[in-house]
Structures are given as C-alpha cells and as structure tokens.
Amino acid sequence: MTALDLDVPSTALALPPAFTGRLVQGACDAFTEALALVGRDGSDAAGTLILTERANVLDLAVVLAPDEPLGSARRAFLAAMTALADAVGAHGPPEMPLTFGWPDVLVFDGARLGGGRLGWPVTCAETSTPDWLVFSAMLILSKAGTGDPGLTPGSTALDEEGFPADIRYPLVESFARNLIRTFSLWAEDGFDGIAARYLAHLPTPSGVSVRIDREGDVILGESERWSLARLLREPAWLDPETGTVRL
Fold first, then answer.
1. Which of 35, 58, 207, 230 has fewest C-beta within 10 Å?
2. Domain ranges in the chain?
3. Structural contact between residues 61 and 49, judged by C-beta atoms closer than 8 angstroms
4. Measured between alpha carbons, how far is 206 from 247 in angstroms, rounded to an integer?
C-alpha cells in the first residue's frame, strides 16, 4: 500500500489542523511517497504529512507550500531541522547534547541518530517560487536485527538513548507542532531567530563570527562559506544500499 492508495486521512496521529496525516505500510520510504504525491497533486498536497510504518526507523515527510523563490525558500529545510531537534530534545533524556552535522545530520550524544532531506521541483529556477517543497526526516528507532551495536559506534538509536518504546507517534506529533510554531515565527519576525536556533546546534570554530545568509549558506568570518543547496542533493546520513540511516 502507498500513500496514494489512502483516500481517508489517518486518524491515528493527533496533528495540528494545518496537517493531513497519512500512514503508509510496507518498505516504501516517506520521501519517495511524498514526491509521488506532489507529482500527482502538486501544490494541492501541501500540508500532507506522511509517516511510514517501518520496523526500526521513524520515517516521515511533509509537503510544504513555499511563498518565496527557491534560492531562499530552501531555508525551510533549516527551519524544519530545528523543529525536529526541538521534538527530539523534548522527548529524550534531559541534558543530552543534540547537534547538527552540516547541514542535514542529527547527532545525539555524539552519534548519528538520523537526518533530514529536502526535495523541490527539478525544473524550478532559483529565482522562481516552487509549487512545493518536501521535507523528510528519518531517525533510527532501534538497531535490533542489524548485528552487534558495538560494531557501529558512529550511530545510535532512540531505544539505546532511553526514549520511550512507543515514541513514534508522540515524536511525529511534537515535530508537527514545532514546525507550525517555527514557520509562524519566521513569518512574524523574519528568519534571524530561526537561524540562531539552528546555529545553536551546529558546532563551528570558536572565535569566528557565524551567520546564515538568505540562500541558507553558513558564512564563517569574512569569506568561508558552507553551501546548503549543493549538499542537500546527496544526504550525508543516508545509506544508499539500505535506504535508511547509515549505521
């Protein structure tokens, strides 16, 4: 079954009114399902949040409706990553460090927990407003069945870090609420506050000024630039062989 097979929105998720939840069974991934949905419905799919029912990963995607050119609209990815970090931090053990690996990796207590990715219309020019964006995130729920976790110290899982066993739905619901709040703050006060929240999770060299420009790039000092758009084309956390988070 795919998201396109579901005619009735899911009632299993308690989402804000702006969202329509859809649950997807099987081995498909939420990012691919969301791209298929916008390929059929375009901007009418905005607000759809897809959650796949996969055993060992939390896999979600949400269709967004940007209102500015693609070059600056990609900053929605940074806003969504901030909302994701807020959701994970709210449900996890207190005082545990939660950071980003630029730009798309979510790191919990020094190990890779998952990450996010962004899709946009391939024919959209940087100066044109895209009909849609798709933000997707994937987190490791458990390493059960993947071998000895001690052999993959570079990654971690929610169950290893003390999260509740039934964390999937609460975490997705929390992400949705945080995403609405984050975009509302962006609309009301501009992107600077969102940028500061993202940068609070991003390790950068000490003693160097850091900011995020209108294209979403990180600018360090007077000249060093960390690109956003180029790196979003190939998620650093995604294992192409398994289609899930790198262990």
1. 207
2. 3-190+230-245
3. yes
4. 29
Cα separation, 136 vs 118, in Å, equals 6
20, HSE (Cβ side, Cα atoms, 13 Å)? 14
Amino acid symbol at 218 = V
User: What letter would DSSP give residue 133?
Assistant: E
Pairing of strands 48-53, 20-25: parallel
The pLDDT tens digits for 31-63 are 999 999 999 999 999 999 999 988 899 999 999
Phi, psi of 58 (to 5 degrees): -95, 120
The pair of three-digit structure tokens given for residue 22, joined into one six-digit string: 């859809």
Confidence (pLDDT) at 6? 36
CA distances from 58 to 132, 155, 167 (A): 23, 15, 9
Helix residue spans in the chain (DSSP H): 30-41, 70-73, 75-91, 168-189, 192-199, 229-232
Helix, coil or strand: residue 241: coil
> Is the pTM value of this prediction over 0.70?
yes
Q: CA-to-CA distance for 128 and 71, rounded, in angstroms?
A: 8
CATH 3.30.930.10 fits 3-190+230-245, yes or no: yes
Q: Which residues contact 146 (CB under 8 A, 6 or more apart)?
A: 56, 152, 247
